[in-house]
Amino acid sequence: MLKSKFQTTELIEVLTKGIGVYETLRTYNDKPFAVKEHYNRLCKSLSYLKIDPPSFKEFENLVYENLSERIRIVYAYSNKLVSYVFRETAEDMNAGYIKIDFTNVRRADPWSIPPDLKSLGRPDIYLARLTKGDNYDVIMLGNKGQVCEGTFSNVFIIKQRKIITPSLESGILDGITRMYVMNFLKEKGYTIEERFVEPYELFECDEVFLTHTSRGIVPVNQIGDIQTRSYELSKKLSEEFEGYIKCLL
Amino acid sequence: MLKSKFQTTELIEVLTKGIGVYETLRTYNDKPFAVKEHYNRLCKSLSYLKIDPPSFKEFENLVYENLSERIRIVYAYSNKLVSYVFRETAEDMNAGYIKIDFTNVRRADPWSIPPDLKSLGRPDIYLARLTKGDNYDVIMLGNKGQVCEGTFSNVFIIKQRKIITPSLESGILDGITRMYVMNFLKEKGYTIEERFVEPYELFECDEVFLTHTSRGIVPVNQIGDIQTRSYELSKKLSEEFEGYIKCLL
Amino acid sequence: MLKSKFQTTELIEVLTKGIGVYETLRTYNDKPFAVKEHYNRLCKSLSYLKIDPPSFKEFENLVYENLSERIRIVYAYSNKLVSYVFRETAEDMNAGYIKIDFTNVRRADPWSIPPDLKSLGRPDIYLARLTKGDNYDVIMLGNKGQVCEGTFSNVFIIKQRKIITPSLESGILDGITRMYVMNFLKEKGYTIEERFVEPYELFECDEVFLTHTSRGIVPVNQIGDIQTRSYELSKKLSEEFEGYIKCLL
Amino acid sequence: MLKSKFQTTELIEVLTKGIGVYETLRTYNDKPFAVKEHYNRLCKSLSYLKIDPPSFKEFENLVYENLSERIRIVYAYSNKLVSYVFRETAEDMNAGYIKIDFTNVRRADPWSIPPDLKSLGRPDIYLARLTKGDNYDVIMLGNKGQVCEGTFSNVFIIKQRKIITPSLESGILDGITRMYVMNFLKEKGYTIEERFVEPYELFECDEVFLTHTSRGIVPVNQIGDIQTRSYELSKKLSEEFEGYIKCLL
């Protein structure tokens, strides 16, 4: 389902010769979630590209005129800025059993592509997705081998009740759900460590969970062919987080 | 000028959700140049993406049906492969005086994006172009600071009649003009060194030239605010290369 | 136990102002093992430092005049080359249960220090050793996070009867025992893969073993706090390798 | 000229099996300069190695008992800490014309060796010195190609009256003279930028100078085979800094 005020031929030229950035929003009970945060992140993406952003009003209108389970808003630019909106259903990724793995495709270095430039057609992320196989998501490492993030999710580990996640300096996208999850955990009294995380720490810990817009907190059951030790706390946190988010709306 | 056998709405979805690769060909005297080499490189790009390539016949037809000074062929993929062709004029970049500079945007690491995956909307290259200012092109370094290439050109330096250019292992695109230039230089009896090149070598050498599809060999007069020592040999080679290419057709 | 033809004050100046390289040899039944290979590697170390090596005869004499379970030969240089020999006992590292872990100290990059320059007082290796705790050895990663080697051992993994070990290009020392083990395994009909190894592969494989001069093949029972799946094949290979080495003498 | 309270054989074992750190101090008019700063840096070096430092009193005594133009204090450790002092003359490096160049040997990465661990026999620095030829010093780059420092000096550039020098985050030693020079320049009203510096900036600037303990500020006349545009301001600053330092004693 497409909607645009612009000529399609125009968009084709723009997408082929220029560059596109995007944001994907969730709605809960027909209310869009974190519109302002998504707008701010879009502005950040556009600022790297030296493109003047739309006004917040304009962005908000696009969201409300296209309410759906997931709303994907694309801005493409080549001399002029054009917008496109995709109304999407929130695919049910509710696989009971979550298996992830590492991918050999590395996330592009921040010196090459700022981690919070959310642009269309990023080849590193596309190539990583091709290696997914039957995994829910695959974890990308950074240029020094540090854990970065999944192709659409952020990673957390639980180690002796401390909760550890790659810092922004690791070269990751400043995930909006990641931030809400960290606020939620802090309110619950957990200690959060944002720092460089080594891949082997995912094996040498108690639990692993992912976070992403569509599903909040996702407990991980298996990494490669190794089962995680537990996922009980992650499961409990996942349920509590659902309630927490709904209260915020 | 667009031409496509496909629905435009289709292409929009494809470009927004999928990925696009492309090749740009030159014609000389209405004959397209190096069609087979461009086809092979396109196949290489698609193979990284695990997409079946079109047949050579199909590619060749697209070229011949769209003859123009420059022909830009785009293949976009998201579940299906669609093609798009742009007929372009060869902009006259015949600036008498060529100034280049280094950019602080680094080329994405080969572990992240294969250097010979020629995809649309690569943010590193887009960001580098934004720093061009009044330069003809800017030189991107790799993740170790080695010289890679310009945003649309390859770099060569002349040092005591030896001709030196970054090796493919430096993380550069396997430029088709680069290859023709190297063959030409070898035939002329020059010694070519393909190796890691440090940025300061561009200052500590005799001459610097760029190569790219549209203009062949381009002598460089200035790097940053430093004039090159000479450009006489580059200028001579540039003229001889024009003749060399025309003989190949 | 020290032995030297040189003044000690001289050596102090040399070690303080210059640089030292070394080799450590084993004897089996009073016969020194792989003298020529150790000599060649010493010459390689010295060649990086642009120091003329001693003759093979001289090196061999030092070995035979100092026969002991382990012979450590140091060459130090600052204007002149002086040698020093330590006669050592082969410490019994025959811990029944072998636990290893990863260290956060990275091995110096080959662009900084050639991996086969075996010099005294390398701070990266010294710092890694400080993190050993109760581990038999700790595994150092390279500058991209790839598995390199232990502080005194090389690493191998067994995955579906294929035997995999970091390639020299990973930035490792060309271990003499590593080479003998690979020859031995090839003779036994195993497939050996020398390539970049990711840290998580040590968890997602069947067995892990180390190799080093003093003990040959050492099966690993535990990595961090995770037990390896098996160590049966490694144990069998370890015993067979003992016999193989003795036959070579 | 050596002086030690310890057995020489002991030190030989220590230097061969352990690790050594050092500091080199200058005296002006028979007064040692920056003793406390050197002591603090020594403590930093030892703390990386988990070695308890000597007391400040003990360090100070070593300095005063060995007063000379340059005092080199070595602490070596292998089970026990032993000290050694070399009394040196300040070699006259007053070459009228200062030529420097870049070296292809990269400084070890901070993930491998902390930049402020000042240890004996660092192979990267030793190898870099081997490439010096007739240069006063050679500039080492870091693992991303950023400018770090010389093998015994720090680098500054002057660009439109702003003074720029690699930040500590570039992976450099926290030079004591570097710090005094920056304080001096700030007091004189100059703007100092500490940041990542690219090698080509040494060519695209007005002046370049080095700083090191023995000579303070050293104006650079030539980089590789390119003369610097000017060295007038550096020369003036060099003279003023001499006076500034003497006032501090």
Automatic annotation (TrEMBL), chains A, B, C, D:
InterPro entries noted in UniProt: Aminotrans_IV, Aminotrans_IV_CS, Aminotransferase-like, BCAT-like_C, BCAT-like_N, Class-IV_PLP-Dep_Aminotrnsfr
Gene3D superfamilies in alphabetical order: 3.30.470.10, D-amino Acid Aminotransferase, subunit A, domain 2
Family per similarity comment: Belongs to the class-IV pyridoxal-phosphate-dependent aminotransferase family.
Any one GO molecular function term: transaminase activity
Presence of the UniProt keyword Cytoplasm in the record: no
Record keywords, A-Z: Aminotransferase, Pyridoxal phosphate, Transferase
Cofactor: pyridoxal 5'-phosphate
SUPFAM superfamilies linked to this entry: D-aminoacid aminotransferase-like PLP-dependent enzymes
Record lineage: Bacteria, Thermotogati, Thermotogota, Thermotogae, Thermotogales
UniProt source species: Fervidobacterium nodosum (strain ATCC 35602 / DSM 5306 / Rt17-B1)
Protein name: Aminotransferase class IV
Biological process, per Gene Ontology: amino acid biosynthetic process; carboxylic acid biosynthetic process
